[in-house]
């Protein structure tokens, strides 16, 4: 039963004490968040992993790229476990390293040494290593603006991987006109751009989040007509059109802080993953909160981590077996850490 599973998790946590650390991303299910030692957005969890020197085992409740990041930022003796190996990220999968090497070669032919690569942390360790090796940095949704500003102090053009929306929204906020942004299509290995390539300042990798693409202009139009006094807040993985029509946009941490600080009685439509929206509804009963898309949008891979998988991973550790350990090869870690450190030093 659920009670029995919860009891076992508690027992194992108690047995391991500070030797066991369970970070949980804001998109995780309540049944998992309940047992997390720290919850946070991607940046907070990366910082928490880097700061933890005590834990021998880090059971990461989030998706694969986050566990890879934790492995790269912790010491060799600390072991990172992902409770379900199928917990990937469809956005991270949209940029593989072969496509990226191929793109870089072509972009160098066109633009020479004028481009700096930046990657959203939602990317594989290999992509982070590519970025680190080429002088760039990782970014998260809570520091993208700061990091893009930094990037422009290094080079005149940016290649932003793998989320076109976070890249476009951030560059737009910094004053880069949409006409100066091109799309890189990794399937055709071509730039998608109508004008003169000399004018391009930002090259957006053609990737997106399959959860956030479900929040649409039609959802906003409908709400503006039916609930004109509703505030709309979305994650910057939503499209430019959706962000432009919303009242607020920001990382999961920003969304939580904004809702918590809002006045009682205010109304909010939130455009982000379902588990977080449901938790905010539950924790802010004094406000009226709905999902921007009435069909609540789950991240299927985040949801693969559940209580049974968490318990299964913990019971493995209890028996002395480390199952689903995430190990990033040394040669990749070496370069990827350069990109991660450039971010952690700048925020
Ligand atoms: P943040 O936690 O940085 O807001 O990112 C959201 C997300 O989609 C993580 O996969
Ligand atoms: Fe990836 Fe989107 Fe899921 Fe985040 S919400 S893990 S970006 S698919």
From TrEMBL:
Entry keyword Iron-sulfur: yes
Signal peptide coordinates: none
Subcellular location: Cytoplasm
EC number: 2.5.1.72
GO MF assignments: transferase activity
InterPro entries membership: NadA (IPR003473), NadA_sf (IPR036094), Quinolinate_synth_A_type3 (IPR023515)
Catalytic activity line of the entry: iminosuccinate + dihydroxyacetone phosphate = quinolinate + phosphate + 2 H2O + H(+)
Binding site for [4Fe-4S] cluster: 89, 209, 299
Residues annotated to bind iminosuccinate: 25, 42, 120-122, 141, 235-237, 252
Main subcellular localisation: cytoplasm
Cofactor requirements of the protein: [4Fe-4S] cluster
Recorded metabolic or biological pathway in which this protein acts: Cofactor biosynthesis; NAD(+) biosynthesis; quinolinate from iminoaspartate: step 1/1
Gene3D superfamilies: NadA-like
Cofactor annotation comment: Binds 1 [4Fe-4S] cluster per subunit.
Keywords attached to this entry: 4Fe-4S, Cytoplasm, Iron, Iron-sulfur, Metal-binding, Pyridine nucleotide biosynthesis, Transferase
Family: Belongs to the quinolinate synthase family. Type 3 subfamily.
Function noted in UniProt: Catalyzes the condensation of iminoaspartate with dihydroxyacetone phosphate to form quinolinate.
Record-given protein name: Quinolinate synthase
Organism: Metabacillus rhizolycopersici
């Amino acid at each position: 039963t659920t009670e029995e599973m919860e009891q076992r998790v508690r027992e194992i946590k108690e047995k391991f004490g500070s030797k066991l650390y369970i970070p949980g991303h804001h998109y995780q299910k309540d049944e998992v968040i309940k047992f997390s030692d720290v919850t946070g957005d991607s940046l907070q969890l990366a910082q928490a992993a880097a700061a933890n020197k005590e834990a021998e085992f880090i059971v990461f409740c989030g998706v694969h790229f986050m566990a890879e990041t934790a492995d790269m930022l912790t010491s060799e003796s600390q072991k990172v476990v992902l409770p379900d190996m199928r917990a990937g990220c469809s956005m991270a999968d949209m940029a593989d390293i072969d496509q990226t090497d191929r793109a870089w070669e072509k972009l160098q032919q066109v633009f020479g040494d004028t481009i700096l690569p930046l990657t959203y942390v939602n990317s594989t360790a290999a992509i982070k290593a590519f970025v680190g090796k080429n002088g760039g940095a990782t970014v998260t949704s809570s520091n993208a603006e700061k990091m893009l500003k930094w990037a422009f102090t290094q080079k005149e053009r940016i290649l932003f991987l793998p989320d076109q929306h976070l890249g476009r929204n951030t560059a737009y906020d910094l004053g880069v006109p949409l006409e100066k942004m091109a799309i890189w299509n990794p399937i055709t290995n071509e730039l998608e751009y109508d004008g003169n390539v000399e004018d391009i300042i930002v090259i957006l990798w053609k990737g997106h989040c399959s959860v956030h693409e479900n929040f649409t202009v039609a959802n906003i139009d409908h709400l503006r007509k039916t609930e004109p006094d509703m505030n709309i807040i979305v994650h910057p993985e939503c499209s430019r059109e959706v962000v432009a029509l919303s009242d607020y946009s920001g990382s999961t941490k920003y969304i939580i802080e904004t809702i918590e600080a809002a006045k009682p009685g205010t109304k909010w439509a939130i455009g982000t993953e379902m588990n977080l929206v449901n938790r905010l509804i539950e924790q802010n009963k004094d406000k009226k909160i709905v999902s921007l898309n009435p069909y609540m949008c789950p991240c299927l891979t985040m949801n693969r981590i559940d209580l049974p998988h968490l318990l299964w991973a913990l019971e493995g550790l209890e028996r002395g077996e480390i199952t689903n350990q995430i190990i990033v090869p040394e040669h990749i870690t070496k370069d990827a850490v350069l990109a991660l450190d450039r971010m952690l030093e700048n925020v």
